[in-house]
Specification:
4 copies of one chain form a homotetramer. Chain A is α+β, with helices and mostly antiparallel strands. Chain A contains 9 helices and 13 strands. In chain A, strands 11-10-9-12 form a 4-stranded mixed β-sheet. Chain A has a 3-stranded antiparallel β-sheet with strand order 1-4-13, with helices on one face. The longest helix of chain A is centred in the N-terminal third of the chain and has 30 residues. At the B-D interface, strand 3, helix 7, helix 8 and strand 9 of B face strand 3, helix 7, helix 8 and strand 9 of D.
């Protein structure tokens, strides 16, 4: 049973966070679509608002009217059941409505949702709740898409003129290995809290013995892989990965310069800190690195087993850094936050998985093909968005997310 | 010998016209790049300013400094001799500098050019003059690119909220044919006025006898071609044109709706007026239409022979309509303005053509391959930009320019 | 410990089968490469011979010499560790050596391998053994590639002029469901017989309760899906599958005609028999069909659990039909043979998987990305090639293999 | 009025020449389609036969029957008016009919055409005559396509095992320039002999004064261009040419090796002879070379004016060399034969051009877009196929024809 008051607070908090993350962006910044996989920031602001208008207000608000019926087309992402959609690769063409009008729309929708919320029934409250988690996903996408957009200019500008919180300096904690015995474990979401349908149902799985690295792979370690000819040794790579690396002329992670001495981030070009976790690598690169290191990527069940019961603590968007930070301490570090951790598991439905009813059934299920699972969250993720059962997923060639590597080994 | 005072006035007038044409655009509108062939309006504003900074101020202004050296890269269009260039298809990524900063840059450059102009020598004055004609070309491109950008949204918005001057109503003048005898004529630019290098040198050519239509082909006439199965009859088309029409699923001019009843323009979607000249057709379509009509396109020499000695009068951007108007009167009509007229001539150098010296030699000559010549100017062209010897050119598949058809026939 | 005599017999038998399957092909037939994923039959004949020359004769034959050193390049498929390779999509360019010369090469290699075999040590015997299983894979590929090649001509010719063995007529057995309880099972290869590295190591997995259909989905059942708008209902499809179906204009299985009344096979165009298993569907189509049918695809562990301990019986290439046959009887039917069965499992390494040493380590491991597993074998597979632990794999869009559907359901 | 006896002799001679040129090819060689622009040799043999079957026998032979109606589809090249066509890029899939059957078809058609010819009327005789000239075009294409096909294998095989006639050794004649005054000249075909429609009608043109080089550009001269950084200097190139050279990684003519020391030809890889004409360059390269050399390409009218009245003498396919030869003597050399000479003229219709009636009207006219004219013929052309008014044409990027450079200069 959803607590209406808590949901109202959460709604307001999440929506305000989106506005804050987009605040540094000019109307021009918010227009850029740098590739078909990315969306303009303005579109993220509008689409997340469309979500509440489409799935909460339209069905539940008395006398509901759209600001413009055509916005249903412009800001529908991929819901075939809702109707036609503006072509995804052409989102950058949408100069109208302007950013100010989208912001005003956000405000109006917020007022209406908050006014309506106390009277909503269960299904509607579920939709509001889902909308807030949906919006948190777009918060991260907004940031990764903006970073990618800004990287496309020779100016390599910073995301904001205001100073961002500094990451701690110093070296990374030494790498240690934690051993796990074979066990039948319960995986997937448990309890009353929110979870996406793809985290359900809770199910039993046999997880063999394995060892898990105590922290993320660092820039320094990845630099050693590069310097050892990592990008020139076919034997380290999956065949598709090798083809992607060759055709894309990859010589290092996405945002590294040719010398491997600077990297582009939300502060613009910055010296590469060897102590920080490597970020913006594809699954292919993560896999090749692991093979080079005599290790492998953890599977989803292994990762989840290690994360179960741990507090969601780490370096999230909440820190205001918008950058990674070095591993500290002796135990298992960085399981949450800093960078998403590529697993060796394909994104597939859990046993007896059932998607949501109606159009929202398209939320996750139809994407369970051709993608790999990432776990743990990043420095661009809101802390309250994450949990041990959370499944993120991207195609194995994707590099513009804050994606990195944690190693595993057979026991 | 260039008159400095006249040039100053012209400089100010041309630059102000650009600003006026861009005035209705929001920062968002000015960002859109709808295809690699088109550029964002902001980029046009910046590039035309870069032209004066690069070719006038940098070499001639004492103590010249660039606002940002990297802008040389961002706003260089295609001058290999100047240095590296931001990738053309990625101009839509340039959110920085913002529109306001580009506008401020334009103002500063204007003040400096106008201050410097009285002391400039001949070559520098030539560069200023060239820059103004260059800017007039970009005025038209800015408009055609904005139209294309706005057409990419389901909102089909108008270019401006202000009312545009109305086009005259009424039917088109009847079509008549004017005959020309065989003659050796002098073609290309003559006299002291400005001309692009591609209009030179003046040279003799033998032009056989021909007949030329007294006005442009109308929407109504083109609609008859469509209704007669024009897009389904291979025998009417060049092989490349047929392939382009099939692969692009062309069923009519670029901006016509499926029913052929409305067309998109600077006023948004408007009813198609059968009396107005057909616009936004490719060379392939113009050629197929002409074959269907038992006629052909005029050649460059034919067109120029017919246009020589005539006043540059017609429907230009100066009318404030930003739309075509119907042919009026009994004589040869619409030779200038309304729509660019596809010729049957490939864009090639005139005999003894010599490009300009230095980087500006890349202005025209290197594009003399794979394109067809258009003549006469359009309702988006400034009147003072046009003349009988003027050669416009686009690839035969291009449709986003204001391009139409005038028929010719063998005598 | 490999039995040399048995291996000699197997070697001779397998090689002869390849020759027999290729016997109906003219030099022209054997040249065709219909798409980058397919290879000419002559190339299959040469590559399988190269395998023994490269991995058996070259390292073990005293005074070994290549017929032409450049053939190492021409007929190396994908072994980076062996050296450069002729480009895969350009295999159809290799008119030299001609088919006769390739056949002669096969004979010479066969004589030399059989002569050498009694003196070979363990590793070399392993390579010979692997080569025979490798060749059996190419026997099936040769057939599927020839079928695809022949389908590309308006003549739609049969593979051979000789009559093929007839498939039994009559309707398919009724569909029943077999239930399986949750169990921890041992999966992967067991025992002394040959297995590919990707079937190892034997490992424990927890398999939840499920039900499995007693036979394959038929053409008639698939036709009902098509007639019910299966290819027009986005809600039934994975997002990637929907995109593939739309971009490929799929309206039915690969070789069906538009009316769904005939299908192309090794006999040319033949009436579609509703009792036969549907074949030549992609994973996307298999998945959409299953969803439409209120079922799902089985997972690898589910399929293997059902198949363990069963005799490898069914309709294989050995029947000489080169076509599917209807399910018969009451029990679990068609688990082996007829069509490969798409599973819902991505092709990934088993826990503690280790690829073979050296260049042969590229055999399977590097392809464990972006593909789905198929199980059971087809009417193009040699019976002796198959076993319950056998893992076949293709990208989810692939349709030219003899791939079909068996349904599963949650218990 | 066509002389039936002469045409019979010519028919037999041309058809026999095709057979002789194809004689060295195995069934495998005759299957290869190396790119969409090229066709398999077997297809050339069949298509030229189809031409007579379609345009002579079918309309004129009493009780005509096709060997297989579907061959009308398989071997129709591009005649929309005839009906559907097998897809051009898929000609390499046509293993059936086999080469032997195509050869047998050729023989049967030859017998029937020769039997029918004495009774044919004017239009049919015109079709036979056109068919022989059509076949001569395909003789050259057969050779260029075979060369391209063989170049795609690491074996770099020779076209034939028999020795080809040797090219004379020795250095090229010195380069001289011949001057021409301005004149009004008659261009296009004159007289009673055969000409393609694109050479008509004869028409007057004013040709300005110019100078023409006395021989072709040599490998040695082109090598100097390469060594002078010709492929790295954008200022020498047309913009489209520069883009093609960069995207295609061009570093020299098509068949040169990286060192510029060997080139692939009908004898396989051979040392590059600096005295021989450079061949297998695109229009873009010819144009860039000319600019580097301080010259330009001749226009069509210039070339034709220089060639008018000269005997068609030179190095043709008749020499049996299938290779170029050095320029000899003092006067204007190599105007005919050796290599096709790129002109600076786009392929466009002559004034008052009318294509042939009916389906044959598609022969030339519909290709008058996007191509450049070449003149003079090559060492792959039959002598009797050429004349001063002959217009060959290819896209400016095409390199697989035997295309080279003759320089011109302004007077």
């Amino acid at each position: 049973m959803i607590d209406r008051e808590a949901l109202s607070l959460r709604y307001a908090r999440v929506r305000a966070r989106t506005d804050a993350l987009a605040a540094p962006l000019s109307p021009e910044d918010a227009m850029v679509q740098s590739m078909p996989d990315a969306s303009p920031a303005k579109w993220h602001l509008a689409h997340t608002t469309w979500f509440f208008e489409e799935f909460v207000l339209a069905p539940h608000e008395p006398g509901h009217r759209w600001p413009d019926e055509r916005w249903r087309v412009l800001f529908n992402s991929y819901y075939e059941a809702v109707g036609p959609r503006h072509a995804r690769p052409a989102r950058g063409l949408l100069s109208r409505p302007p950013l100010d009008e989208v912001r005003a729309w956000r405000s109006r929708v917020d007022a209406r949702v908050l006014e309506l919320l106390p009277s909503l029934g269960g299904a509607a409250l579920e939709a509001v709740s889902l909308g807030t988690h949906h919006e948190e996903q777009h918060q991260e996408l907004l940031l990764t898409d903006v970073q990618h957009a800004l990287s496309g200019s020779e100016l390599r500008p910073a995301y904001t003129d205001r100073p961002l919180a500094a990451s701690p300096a110093g070296s990374a904690a030494p790498l240690a290995w934690t051993s796990f015995d074979e066990a039948v474990v319960d995986l997937g979401h448990a309890g009353d809290g929110f979870a996406f349908d793809n985290e359900t149902p809770r199910h039993r799985a046999l997880v063999g013995p394995f060892r898990l690295a105590s922290r993320l792979v660092t820039n320094g370690e990845y630099r050693a892989f590069v310097d050892d000819g990592g990008y020139d040794r076919a034997e380290l790579w999956l065949a598709d990965g090798w083809a992607a690396a060759k055709s894309g002329a990859w010589r290092g992670p996405l945002y590294w310069d040719d010398a491997g001495e600077h990297a582009f981030g939300m502060r613009g070009m910055q010296p590469l800190d060897p102590a920080l976790p490597v970020a913006h690598v594809s699954h292919y690169e993560a896999d090749a690195f692991a093979r080079w290191a005599g290790a492998r990527l953890p599977t989803e069940p292994e990762w989840e087993r290690a994360a179960q019961g741990r507090a969601v603590e780490g370096n999230f968007v909440d820190s205001g850094r918008l950058a990674t930070s070095p591993a500290r301490g002796e135990g298992m570090a960085q399981l949450f936050g800093d960078v998403w951790e590529w697993t060796g598991s394909a994104y597939l439905p859990y046993p007896r998985f059932r998607p949501l009813e109606g159009a929202l059934g398209e939320y996750n299920g139809k994407f369970m093909s051709g993608q790999m699972v990432l776990r743990g969250g990043s420095c661009f993720s809101p802390r309250e968005h994450l949990r041990a059962s959370y499944r993120n997923f991207f195609p194995p060639h994707a590099r513009w997310q804050v994606s990195g590597v944690r190693l595993a080994r057979d026991a």
